[in-house]
Amino acid sequence: MARCTAPVYGHRTASGAAACPVCGSRSRGYGSYSSYSSPYSSSGSGGSSGGGSGSSVRPRWSRASSSVMYTPAEVRTLTPVRENFEKRASVPDLRDVFLCHAWDDRKGVAQELHDLLESRGVSVWFSEKDVLLGAPLLREIDKGLAKSRVGIVLVTPALLRRVAAEGIADKELSALLARDLLVPIVHDTTYEALRDVSPLLGSRSGLSTAEQPIADIAAKLAELVTL
Q: How far is the C-alpha of 199 from the C-alpha of 213, rounded, in Å?
């Protein structure tokens, strides 16, 4: 008898759900989603820009000319965030994205993700450029959160250490979790490790660099916040 793999692999990313012999078939058949209005504009086999198994689909917010494709699980993950983004789209003077990251990642993967997003025309609140020398950091973070449409949390080993120690990253997460505008991006760690530190954040679906390159993740995030 097939057993659910959630205790080992988790179901918070596209491949985690698709690879499960129990939940994967339910996801492909849409199970309890049968009465849910489909967020896809088309589907096919293959052609995915990132990891995960199963067919590739195009979400309704993706332009017809786009080469970026998604798994069904990714579309279900990102659709609520897109819907809330659209509600805030008319609010003036907001950044597209608030990038929450650990201080130790500011010159590495956080900078890389920031640069990839901005190269695609996404405006990003990033502490490295938006907090002036001598400015009160917590106050500037509060301003950045209030003036951004979507929050991205870059989950790395360094961030897990900061959250466990209840540092500034933990305060950012608390504010982001209070809004349904959050996309976790897991890098060099796992959702299991995240749940050990923050069960609430670990319960959120997201994307993982273990399944696809960070450039592909940036492409999907850029489409998510483009009208």
A: 26
Give Cβ neighbours of residue 3 (< 8 Å, ≥ 6 apart): 21, 22
pTM score of the predicted model: 0.74
CB atoms within 10 A of CB 8: 10
**Close Cβ partners of 108 (under 8 Å, ≥ 6 residues apart):** none
Give the C-alpha separation, 186 to 85, whole Å. Answer: 21
Question: Which string of b and e fits 134-149 if b means at least 16 CB within 10 Å?
Answer: eeeeeeebeebbeebb
Per annotation, catalytic residue among 83, 166, 172, 211: 172
Say whether 128 is catalytic.
no
Helix/strand/coil for 128: helix
Q: How confident is the model at residue 31 (pLDDT cuts 50, 70, 90)?
A: very low
Q: How confident is the model at residue 32 (pLDDT cuts 50, 70, 90)?
A: very low
Among 3.90.1150.10, 1.10.287.3610, 1.10.760.10, 3.40.50.10140, what is the CATH number of 6-224? 3.40.50.10140
Q: Quick check: 31 and 17 in contact, CB under 8 A? A: no
